[in-house]
Amino acid sequence: MSLLVVGLSHRSAPVSVLERAALTADAQTKLLQDTVAAEPATEAAVLATCNRVELYADVDKFHAGVAELSTLLAQHSGVGLEELTPYLYVHYEDRAAHHLFSVACGLDSMVVGEGQILGQIKDSLARAQDLHTAGRLLNDLFQQGLRVGKRAHSETGIDRAGQSLVTFGLEQLAVGTDVGVWAEGKKALVIGAGSMSSLAAATLARAGVAEIVVANRTVERAERLAQILTEGDDTAVAARAVTMDAVPGELTRADVVVSCTGATGLVLTAEAVAQAVEGRTGRPAAELAARAPAPTHGKAPLTAGADENCPLDLAAAQPGFSVMGEAAVAGMDAATLEQHAAWVAGGTIDRRERRTPESDAELITALAATAATVGRIPERRKPEPAAGIPRPAPSFFLLDLAMPRDIDAAVHRLAGVRLVDIESLAEASADAPMATDVDQVRRIVSDEVAAFGAAQRAAHITPTVVALRTMAADVVAGEIARLDGRLPDLDERQRGEIRQAVHRVVDKLLHAPTVRIKQLAAEPGGAGYADALRTLFDLDPETVASVSRAVDSTDKKDRPA
Question: What is the rounded distance in angstroms from the CA atom of residue 182 to the CA atom of residue 210?
Answer without folding.
Answer: 12
